Amino acid sequence: MSVEKIYCIYCGATVEKGATFCPNCGAALTDAKPAPSATEPVSQPVSYQQSSYEQPSVTVVTTPPPPAKTDNSLGTVSMVTGILGLLCMPGILGIVAIITGHIALSRGKNPMAIAGLVLGYISVAGVILYLVLVITLGLWM
Questions:
Q1: Structure confidence at residue 32 (pLDDT)
Q2: Whole-structure pTM value
């Protein structure tokens, strides 16, 4: 006794007659066709091929950031305190000129900071030289 076979209309798999769902794809078999006889050609399942989609090309334009504004305020402070350190208060203002000059140079090249550093170092060197001369020659009294 042979069991009559039918084919799933969705995937083409052979299914026993009387089955309600295809064991291969799970589709309902209410419209299933009986198996073809030996003389009938078997139709192959239809395979669908998804068309390829080409992504549109995107051109990214990057603009460089605007140049950073340089802040010369610490360089100016260094130069002014270096000048005042030479003229008025050589020790204290010279040290202030050196400190602010180094901070200004760490933020970028600044000619005023370089001038303030030079004046600050000259001011501090002058104070040290003055103290050495006064102490060694005993001119303080």
A1: 46
A2: 0.48
